[in-house]
Amino acid sequence: MLGNFGYELDLTQFTVAEKEEVKRQVALVKEVRELVQFGTFYRLLSPFDGNETAWMFVSKDKKEAFLVHITILNEPNAPLSRLRLKGLDPNYSYEWVGENQSFGGSLLRSCACSRVQSDGQPHTL
Prior knowledge:
By secondary structure, the protein is α+β, with helices and mostly antiparallel strands. The chain is 23% helix and 29% strand. The chain is built from 2 helices and 8 strands; from the N terminus they run H-E-E-E-E-E-E-H-E-E. A hairpin with a 4-residue loop joins strand 5 and strand 6. The two termini are 17 Å apart.
């Protein structure tokens, strides 16, 4: 998703459920492709400084953002991570897709609580 996109697998050996997952992943890549390719990139957490990494892409008009937040090794009862999102307009309201919630850009820039979803799904603003 963040570079060349492809699968180094024998897709003919996939189950029906795995094929559906690949379709969902390809649809997501197509949905965020322009934002990832032409948006402003921010590294929020370095993968070399702890157990998490986070990247963010913001559109030039600052109306859309795509957040990738990854836990390297899963821990039981891990606390919520606090991310300071960058590049957002403090005067805009951003919808957290899939959560049916909206937050002000100034709040998200100061502190957004995030938990990496157990199914590995990315967050979209």
